[in-house]
Amino acid sequence: MRGDWLLWKLRSNGLRILCYHGVCEDRLAGEPWIPSEFVAQSAFEAHLQYLRHSTSVLPLSEAIVRLREGSLPPRSVSLTFDDGYANNLQLAYPVLEKYRTPATIFLSTAYMESGDFFPFLRQRLVGMEGQRTAITSGCSAGQPLLDYKSNPLDLVIDRTDQCWPDVRNRLSEDQERTLRPLTVEEVRRADSQLLEFGAHSHTHCILKNEKPERRQQEIRTSIAKVRLWTGRPARLFSYPNGQRGDFGDADKKVLVSEGILGAVSGIRGVNDGGSDLLELKRYPVGLYHDCAGFSAELVGFRSILLAVSRSLPS
How far is Cα 46 from Cα 33, in angstroms, rounded to an integer? Predict the structure, then answer.
């Protein structure tokens, strides 16, 4: 990965925020039910080794303050995890602790309380099971699943949950352990020196698809629960999905009223002194990131290649 030294030299300023979701055991990385946004535990350790030798890793709260003040060190990086999978503590945390690397975990708080799988995950597992075998019990024939990203969440859940009980009963022990959310008690016991928790909406709805009252409730409820469970101010927020159009100025006003320091999106890029602190960019990390791919993503080389490819005539 040393071929990246020139890009680091040219692009060492600004704040790069990494967006992880889940970490799985190496033996499970090839299973079709493992989400593509997960990483294997050994790959995650390789990422931290690279970060340790090539970057300055900062807690996200500190990094945002220093971004605003203009005091970031060169090659500044922060780590984040979206959703709140239990594997963030079971598998990611031991590696974070080994390398003394801070991270922020953004919680979709409804599922810490209920223990049910995240709704996008339920939908994916139902879809996979529907392709593999005919599901009849508890399902409505001829009712296709709704697009998660363009429909109100309650409608998506109503359609998915016609089949979910049957699918849930078929899950293996590996699936249950790997895909379950954190519990409230696990959040309360987590290492507050290395881990900071932020809010990620209450039910993980895409804000643009909901009515204004629901959007406000989602934001305020998740922030209040993170405060309650951690006993600390909730200073950080992550927009579900977080692409352009998924959130807006009205959502940002609610965040400001709740004392949020910074909010992260799913938009790729480096953050600089002119960045909107309530629309910070991140780089996604997933199963397709081998060591070379990870460094290419981090220094922005992959984004450059994507931009070039889009500009070429088809």
Answer: 23
